[in-house]
Specification:
Elements lengths: L5 E11 L2 E11 L2 E4 L7 H17 L6 E5 L4 H11 L2 E5 L11 E5 L8 E5 L1 H7 L3 E9 L3 H11 L4 E11 L8 E7 L1 E3 L1
Parallel strand pairs: 4-5, 4-8, 8-9, 9-10
Antiparallel strand pairs: 1-2, 2-3, 3-11, 6-7
Length: 190
């Protein structure tokens, strides 16, 4: 089976935020398959998970001023959570864009991407984050590579990461206890 191909008729049934979704099992490499979770385009799932994350974050009274999300699958979720909190959000882009001035760049390795990725904050986003309490939001945290790299870039500017949040935490990956999440997602050893 080629990488990125789903196993025929093999699914994982995910229950999160009061909803059930059938996730196809997808081979990532010769030793590993994951249940592919994609929120984009599933409005009900985004809204319910956004509501549930907002509730959990709100219970912690963290003083969140702004949300930062790595591009791209978590953007709708970050929008939903930030709307509930009445705060703005910033998207850390995956590449330098022509409109950017004086961008900050950090390299990251993700479990679902073969090559190194780049996280980029434009100068205007850095200025927006200045002096703020930040919550990093993403859809799934696997090894934590993206959120750790995002935290590194945020630590270089005058803001404070007060929390990290995701819908799902993949098992046997990120093992720090500073992540707010709604459910665990198994991985499948081949």
């Amino acid at each position: 089976m080629a990488w990125g191909k789903s196993f025929e008729d093999e699914f994982y049934e995910l229950k999160v935020a009061g909803l059930t979704r059938k996730l196809p099992k997808v081979k990532i490499n010769d030793k590993l398959a994951i249940a592919s979770f994609v929120m984009l385009g599933d409005t009900e799932l985004v809204e319910r998970c956004g509501d549930a994350l907002f509730y959990q974050l709100n219970q912690r009274s963290l003083g969140i001023d702004i949300i930062v999300v790595p591009e791209a699958k978590g953007i709708a979720l970050a929008h939903c959570v930030s709307n509930h909190m009445s705060v703005d959000y910033v998207v850390a882009r995956k590449g330098v864009k022509g409109y950017m001035t004086d961008p900050m760049v950090e390299k990251v390795q993700s479990i679902t991407t073969v090559e190194m990725q780049t996280l980029v904050l434009d100068k205007c986003d850095v200025e927006k984050l200045d002096g703020k309490n930040v919550c990093i939001v993403d859809d799934v945290v696997s090894t934590g590579g993206s959120i750790v790299s995002l935290q590194k870039i945020l630590e270089k500017i005058n803001c404070k990461v007060v929390c990290k949040a995701a819908v799902l935490l993949e098992e046997a990956g990120y093992d720090k206890d500073d992540l707010v999440y709604l459910a665990k997602l198994p991985i499948f050893r081949l």
